[in-house]
Amino acid sequence: MPYDYRPYAYVPPPGLTAPEPRHKVVIVGAGPIGLAMALELANHGIPSVVADDNNVVSVGSRAICWSKRSLEILDRLGVAQRAVEKGVTWKVGRTFHREAEVFNFDLLPEDGHQMPAFVNLQQYYVEEYLIERAAAEPLIDLRFRNKVVSVSQGGDHAVAEIETPDGPYRLEAEYLIACDGARSSIRGMMGLDFDGELFEERFLIADIEMQGDFPSERWFWFEPTFHPGQSALLHKQPDNIYRIDLQLGWDADPEVEKTPERVIPRIEKVVGHGDFRLDWVSVYTFQCRRLRRFVHDRVIFVGDSAHVVSPFGARGGNGGLQDVDALGWRLAALLQGRAGTKVLDDFNAERVHGTDENILNSTRATRFMTPDDGVERLFRDQVLALAAKAPFARGMVNSGRLSKPCVYPLGNAPDDAGLPEVSRPGAVAPDAPLGNGWLLPSLAGKVTLLALGCAAPTVPGTTPLAPEVTDTLRARYLGSAERALYLIRPDQVVAARWADPAAADVAGEIAKLWRQA
Amino acid sequence: MTLVTTPNLTDADGFYAALLAAHKGRTEAESHALNAQLVLILANHIGDEAVLREALELAKA
Ligand SMILES: Cc1cc2nc3c(=O)[nH]c(=O)nc-3n(C[C@H](O)[C@H](O)[C@H](O)COP(=O)(O)OP(=O)(O)OC[C@H]3O[C@@H](n4cnc5c(N)ncnc54)[C@H](O)[C@@H]3O)c2cc1C
To answer: With 0-12 CB in 10 A as exposed, 13-18 as middle and 19+ as buried, what is A295?
Structure first.
């Protein structure tokens, strides 16, 4: 069954009849990132207005692969369980050259995590779930068919001019968060450069509905016999929908290639029959670009408005959710007077770092798929040829390195070389079973002092957690050490850790976190 | 480890002859392909990124 796009109701905003009081936060765009941003801020007690020019969820499934980290974030926003229940869970990817499998990866080879490595779920479902949550959240004022047409800044606020079916009005907010997507008009209004690379290649992206028994794995082909000389991808989604990507070459005419007469025969060759229904077809050219800075005084760019990547690696939506993760607790504390403005510089630095890692990985994968003529093509082809003969070359075959959270460079954060690498400062705290539940949810939204093999000291502004040391906790947090104290941020990222708790300057590290002068 | 730039092959003439023999009868494109594979194979064998960087610099100089 095709997805049923139900329009959300437009309600005339109060600003049409009388000026609205200055809001804390206005979020422009109710895509996955704007919605997640509003819910994350609400979790921290911050109200927001979300303005979207449209009144339906994502047209076409677009993002389908949601990473473990995204699920952990969505869990805090109250939609992960639905996403996991509805989605197709997977962790294995296979890469083929012609007929032969040359490489495979398992994204979560170990147990003891609440969330799976990935679920595939159409973007429209993720948005639907987020909208339901947002609509039920009193701190969120969701306004459909509210199009932002201009943005300006005062010293301590931002102003948005908005058009509605009933005419224009204006909104003021202490901060405006631009979540208006890859074609961000706010970026344009502010005259900001969007630097990076466009790949001269076209990809046909199609969702088809069919009864099939393909496994829940990501299958990627270089030069398959069914699509000679190009690359192809097949990936399962719920509702018997399959995503198919076919590389077309730069000369392909996108309008012609989108027509069913062209698409259907191509897909018949992939799946081996004609017994399917076309659900969504689009032809894309991909880019890897970012803004130089994401924070511009009172306007903050988050998600695709700040950065875009090619989808091989699923780093777009997943990367945007990590922006939300890094911004929410900081902006909330700033607005509540608990943090200094420099927390926004920290957000900027961390997400520029994360974005560069996403761009690097996405660029490398896209180049491997679409090498320039000449020596780039030569090496690409020879890696594929070698992969059939020598194991080392298989790992060089790059069909996308799938989204993982980056490890933030926390500079001189207290650390101890004897403790495990997975839980080093800057990394997301690794999950582990905890009593009848899981560790990560108990770390969410507050600063935690996790004490293992010792008592947690009482420090104002922190929540102590001193669980019994299980084997999994030992492996992920202690290694061969007997005890350790971890300071964990509200976004579940390890801020500092000490193998000698007596020596820990916890208060000093907390002051750094909040950038209190 | 640093890149060895002093003689390191016991039979350098022999290797040179073997290299040329491997290319014999190949078109230019096939030779390029062979060389590309050789570079990848040898780089993996060396495994030391510092050495490989030095090798790249020497070749580019
Ligand atoms: C083919 C394809 C496959 C992809 N696969 C994946 C994947 O597997 N995993 C993944 O993580 N990511 C994937 N992505 C990327 C993912 O879709 C994006 O990163 C994600 O949609 C970004 O969300 P966003 O909320 O920032 O922007 P968008 O989803 O673009 O939302 C922007 C919103 O802002 C609204 N808006 C725009 N301008 C205005 C305005 N002036 N006033 C008010 N509202 C406005 C729009 O109507 C829209 O609702 C894929 C993308 C494509 C195209």
So the answer is: buried
Q: Please state the ipTM of this predicted complex.
A: 0.97
User: b vs e for B40-57, b when ≥16 Cβ sit within 10 Å of the residue's Cβ?
Assistant: bbebbeeeeeeebebbee
Residue A74 Cβ contacting ligand 1 at under 6 Å: no
Model confidence, pTM: 0.96
Contact A89, A118 (CB under 8 A): yes
Q: Which of A103, A85, A83, A84 is nearest to A93 (CA)?
A: A103
pLDDT given for residue A503 in this prediction? 85
User: According to DSSP H, which parts of A253-292 are helical?
Assistant: 254-257, 260-271
Q: At a CB cut-off of 8 Å and minimum separation 6, what does A364 contact?
A: A398, A401
Q: Could you tell me the distance, in angstroms and rounded to a whole number, from the CA of residue A317 to the centre of ligand 1?
A: 7
Instruction: Determine the residue type at A431.
Output: D
The closest residue, in CA terms, to atom 6 on ligand 1 is A63
What are the residue ranges in chain A where pLDDT is below 50? none
List of E strands, A2-42? 23-28
Pocket test for ligand 1, best of A180, A204, A218 (most atoms within 8 A of CB): A180
What pLDDT does residue A109 have? 86
Answer whether residue B45 shows pLDDT above 80: yes
What letter does residue A352 receive in the DSSP assignment? H
**A314: its two tokens:** 């699923």
pLDDT for the residue numbered A60: 87
B33/A392 CB distance under 8 A: no
Q: Whose CA is nearest to atom 1 of ligand 1?
A: A62
Residue A145 structural domain: 14-88+120-194+290-360
Q: Assess contact for A265 and A281: CB atoms under 8 A.
A: no
Specify the pLDDT at position A363: 95
Q: Return d(Cα A407, Cα A477) in angstroms, integer.
A: 16
Instruction: Say how many domains are in chain A.
Output: 2
pLDDT tens sequence across A139-188: 999 999 999 999 999 999 999 999 999 999 999 999 999 999 999 999 99
Question: What was the pLDDT predicted at A502?
Answer: 86
- CB pairs below 8 Å between A and B: how many? 22
CATH number, domain of A71, equals 3.50.50.60
Strand intervals (E) in A4-64: 23-28, 48-51
Last residue of a domain, one of A314, A332, A360: A360
